[in-house]
Amino acid sequence: MEKRENFGRYIKEKRKEAGLSQKELAKQLFVSESAVSKWERGVSQTKRY
């Protein structure tokens, strides 16, 4: 659980440093805005290939 929270904090921090909204980041990554929100909250992470 802690790794998810750390990942979420990292994503949020970098997104804000870049001056992007969740919607703008999602568009650049070709994912939904809800995916970015879930990552930041530690609810979901990217698939590991």
From TrEMBL:
Organism: Eubacterium ramulus
HTH cro/C1-type domain boundaries: 11-42
PROSITE patterns on file: HTH_CROC1
Protein name, as recorded: XRE family transcriptional regulator
GO molecular function, one term: DNA binding
Superkingdom, taxonomy of origin: Bacteria
Gene3D superfamilies listed in its UniProt record: lambda repressor-like DNA-binding domains
InterPro entries found in the cross-reference section: Cro/C1-type_HTH, Lambda_DNA-bd_dom_sf
